[in-house]
Amino acid sequence: MSPRRTRAGIYLRVSRSDGAQSTGNQRPDVEQVAKVRGFEVVAVYDEQASAAKHRPKYETMLKDAKRGKFDVVIVWALDRLGRSMVGNLQDVLELDRVGVQVISVKESWLDTSTGSPVRTLLLAIFGWVAEQERARLVERTRAGMEQARRRGIQIGRPQVQVDVRELRKLKAEGLSVRMLAERFGCGSSTIQRRLGGAQ
């Protein structure tokens, strides 16, 4: 009995669907990898969508991977998975976790078939770099907010001025908290605070 062939899923993506870009440029290279490696292509996910938008084919590919539909997923380049290195690496690691290897035409270091430890090392390094990027982003955001506060710029939603006497009068006339919130142009929680917790 011959051993089962490795099952492959193929994910192709371009950002625009106006004819200026086409996944047809990626397909020959990706299919060649599958052919040379002797993979059985069981699914092709062809998507024309920006990485910043909802991508139904990508979501389906991830679900199929978790269900064990294929053993490897072949992409033309890692940036076809998404637009950020952080997100792409998270996806590669998640697919690894469920037993699906990502093979990229352009990033040969992802291939584990050679037994080289380079992939593991690079994923660890890139994972660390991604963590540092996230930490720096948080630091920059906090620093920017603090600088804005020092210059007197209001951070967050502006305070709504509510005339408490008018508020209580309208409340006594039977207006609900929701109606009062609409009248004063603020949230229900603001009204409740001004009323001292009155419902």
Please provide a written account of the structure:
By secondary structure, the protein is α/β, with parallel strands linked by helices. Among the domains are: 7-110, Rossmann fold, CATH 3.40.50; 164-194, no CATH class. Helix content is 46%, strand content 13%. It contains 7 helices and 4 strands. A 4-stranded parallel beta sheet has the order 2-1-3-4, with helices on both faces. Helix 3 crosses helix 4 (118-150) and helix 6 crosses helix 7. It starts with 6 loop residues before the first strand and ends in a 5-residue tail after the last helix.
Quick description:
With 199 residues, this protein is an alpha/beta fold. The chain has helices at residues 27-37, 56-66, 85-97, 118-150, 164-172, 177-184, 188-194; strands spanning 7-14, 40-48, 72-75, 101-104. The longest helix is centred in the C-terminal third of the chain and has 33 residues, at 118-150.
